[in-house]
Amino acid sequence: MIPLAAATVAGWLLLFVVLLVLPPASQPRRDERAAPGIEPPAVVSLLAGRLERDGFGVTLADLAARGWFGLNGTPGPAGPVMCVVPAETPADPLAPYERRVMAHVARRAGVRGEVPTPALSDSFEGGEPAFLKAFRDEVTADAEQRGLTRPRLSGRRIGLLCLLLLVPAGATAIALDTAHQPYPLAFPAASWFVLSLVTAGLGGSRRPSAAGRAVLERWHAAADEVRRGRVGSYGGDERLGAYAAALGRAPGAVAAFAAPKKDVVWSSYRGSWQQLPVETHGGSWPWAIVAILAIIFGPIAYIGGVISLFAIGLGWVGERVLELTAGAALVGAAIWAARRMVPRFAEFDGQVIRQTFTENDEGPDEYRVVVDDGARAEAWDLKVPAGSWPLLTPGTFVHARVNLHNREVSIDAVEPPAVARPLADL
Questions:
Q1: Distance between CA atoms of 46 and 383, rounded to whole angstroms?
Q2: DSSP 3-state assignment of 69?
Q3: Of 200, 210, 288, 317, which one has the greatest count of Cβ atoms within 10 A?
Q4: Cα 314 from chain centroid?
Q5: Mind giving me the DSSP string for 234-269?
Q6: Is 376 helix (H, G, I), strand (E, B) or coil?
């Protein structure tokens, strides 16, 4: 029975793989035909499998090409490219994810109406993971509505595979019972349940439909026309740069929007846009290794040294060393107690320039904001209460009081974030 069970398992796996990778029919079904209209570059990046890497950047590049904001300057030592919000914006409609991006541009530009392009890939409201997840979900929904993607497996095929999965599960149960194994139904039942979930998950994931593949071919052909010096008929050469970047063929088109490093942040609180380092609360790994070695071998070396002093006849030196050690310990304890009883505070006004959220499996979640106080060489990285965090969006002016001993924070918004007109209502 064991060979029969193994054969049924192998047969089901082979059928599952064949159905999963089998390309759809060349003729699109009725629900696979693309809706009329030019697909935004973000949708093209989804079809090309590059949405997570390039979707946000190509959307910025496309919005700039369509006149929603201007780009001044060239990247280099002289400074970054500046994004400038015009006095009047185009009248063409925006998709939900494009409105989300433009609202982010408005908040970052503030009342001045300008912001360095690298700063647009930072300081998202609600934190970067949540913002980009909502962005990708809206792009995915748009592609699905246009008929450009389809499930890898239809609901009928998923149901059939789950039903056929009972055959290897039953054969495995019989084989285990024949071998007099305890609880012969437990393993097959658990395996059927897990594999059914995997089948539904993989089968429900989406891939380009026949219409979606045709869209990819069309934009690849348009990118080839631009490379050969011809202007295509899909929105102009300016927009084609964003489409080529969505296909991974023109990374330079989105280079100006490259995100800054995580340990620096852009701020305009001091009157002009500038980069600030963000304070760090831990040392570098070489110093951490030195500290660990000192903790391990320091006491051994100290005790061995004192014993050696007494052994070679320098007991009076050993006694002084012990007395100095005891005195240093008492002074250290007194300083620690004094700092606990009389903590030092820093109180300042500033502006939130980054909002982050960290989900911890083994402890409470961390809600943090980065604040520029206009004076320090570094921006504050503060852990704030969960209830206050949603109100501390980037651009919000705040008044903060920080206990420098234990880093407890009291922080309040003093006015709502200012955004550039005419984008404030997006």
A1: 35
A2: coil
A3: 210
A4: 62
A5: SS-HHHHHHHHHHTTS-GGGGGGGPPPPTTEEEE-T
A6: coil
CB of 70 within 8 A of CB of 49? Answer: no
Whole-Å CA distances, 382 to 262, 278, 304: 15, 10, 43
Q: How far is CA 59 from the centre of its chain?
A: 17
What backbone phi and psi angles, to 5 degrees, belong to 193? -65, -45
pLDDT tens for the chain, 426 residues: list them: 567 777 777 887 777 777 766 655 444 444 444 444 588 999 999 999 999 999 999 999 999 999 999 998 776 666 788 999 888 888 888 999 999 999 999 999 888 889 999 999 999 999 999 999 999 999 999 999 998 988 877 778 888 888 888 888 888 888 877 877 788 888 888 888 888 888 888 777 778 888 888 888 888 888 776 666 544 444 456 788 889 899 988 888 888 898 877 789 999 998 889 999 999 865 555 666 777 777 887 888 888 888 887 888 887 887 888 888 888 888 888 777 776 666 688 999 999 999 998 887 777 888 999 999 999 999 999 999 988 999 999 989 999 999 888 889 999 998 766 666 556 555
Cα separation, 165 vs 389, whole angstroms: 48
Distance CA(25)–CA(31), nearest Å, equals 13
What token pair was written down for 118?
């690298």
Of all helices (H) and strands (E), which one includes residue 205?
none
Q: Which helix (H) or strand (E) holds 88?
A: none
396, 387 contact by CB (below 8 A): no
Q: Which residues contact 142 (CB under 8 A, 6 or more apart)?
A: 40, 42, 43, 95, 96, 97
Q: How many residues are given for the chain?
A: 426
Whole-prediction pTM: 0.74
Degrees (nearest 5) of the Cα angle 405, 336, 323?
A: 155
Phi, psi at 19, each rounded to 5°: -65, -35
Instruction: Indicate the pairing of strand 409-415 with strand 82-84.
Output: unpaired
CA–CA distances in Å: residue 405 to residues 122, 345, 410: 30, 8, 14
Q: CA nearest 1: which of 176, 138, 153? A: 176
Q: What is the DSSP string of 147-186?
A: T-EEESS-HHHHHHHHHHTHHHHHHHHHHHHHTT-SSTTH
